[in-house]
Amino acid sequence: MKYIIAVIQPERVHDVLDQLEAKGIHLVTTSTVKGRGRQKGLTHQYRGLKSTSTLIEKVKLEIAVNDEYLETAVEAIETGACTEQIGDGKIFVTDLEQCIRIRTGERGSAAIG
Questions:
Q1: How many CB atoms lie within 10 A of CB 50?
Q2: DSSP codes joined into one string, 11-76
């Protein structure tokens, strides 16, 4: 079992979700987050005043998958999130030690679905 964390641009969320859905991956949790990286912030201008924001709004996706779905999920995220511009985001993959479905008590791969 693997746990995928992807941090992507907010405007790419629906494209990523569509790609995941097309590959049969339906279980996704999303959060709005702020962070910074190589993009180094944004400069805004409002009524002639410039302001710089060093934290940029992103969306974090969290997906638990069985091992056989890992590459499919990563490819779907890459396809949906890529604009080939700085700030497209990152994908992190880690081992998932245990998963438990609260309703049924199922454990492991069966609990992921």
A1: 8
A2: GGHHHHHHHHHHTT----EEEEEEE-STT--EEEEETTEEEEESSEEEEEEEEEE-GGGHHHHHHH
pLDDT tens digits for range 9-55 = 999 999 999 999 999 999 999 999 998 877 666 666 667 777 667 78
Cα–Cα dist 109/113, whole Å: 7
The structure's pTM equals 0.86
Residue 50 DSSP one-character state: E
Q: Domain 2-112 carries which CATH code?
A: 3.30.70.120
Question: How far is the C-alpha of 83 from the C-alpha of 112, rounded, in Å?
Answer: 30
What is the overall mean pLDDT for the chain? 91
> Which sequence spans correspond to the domains of the chain?
2-112
d(CA 51, CA 47): 11
